[in-house]
């Protein structure tokens, strides 16, 4: 019996695969499709079409659509400089963007952090967190019903370190730029979104797994518009 037991333990040790930190990170990482940078509707058309949409039709977002929305919010537009789609005071880029995905094709439900330089997602937590996020946002149905919710957070110290207290204003201005970009990109794609600022900061941070120095500023649920059904 002892021989059999030792053989089983040895066999288990032999077959247990030890993954490196890089391999574990790769497992949690999702490379997004390249964003489209030409074609589509004119800026005048999407400005005229922009609306705050709080009710959504059933249907999955595509990974390409999510990719386009995230790129619009904080995507890199010039690799040598790292400049992004939204202007930033001193090019300090204090914003962090999260996604609570529930109904996105080819993307498991979960919470993800957007990494602009690599245009990919890193999974922060598994499972559908939209209802929890809705609870943190005073039970607003748009948050729970959307296919995905984009959250914009600010790290004030990145900007106040250079500009002092005035930097807080600059972070808020930048968050507004990013949110408007999401609005316009959603309109271009025929999707609906709305900017939400009514929520409990600590609860949103907990649901999304934000770091202590990250302060949630916007929630932007995104989904198919009712008229597309």
Automatic annotation (TrEMBL):
In terms of SUPFAM superfamilies, this protein maps to: FMN-dependent nitroreductase-like (SSF55469)
User: Which CDD domains does the annotation name?
Assistant: McbC_SagB-like_oxidoreductase (cd02142)
User: What GO molecular function terms would the record report?
Assistant: oxidoreductase activity
What Pfam families does the database record attribute to this sequence?
Nitroreductase (PF00881)
Q: Superkingdom, according to UniProt?
A: Archaea
Q: What residue spans carry the region label Disordered?
A: 17-37
- Coiled-coil residues are none
Q: Where is the composition biased (Basic and acidic residues)?
A: 20-37
Protein name per UniProt: SagB/ThcOx family dehydrogenase
Q: Which organism is it from?
A: Methanofollis aquaemaris
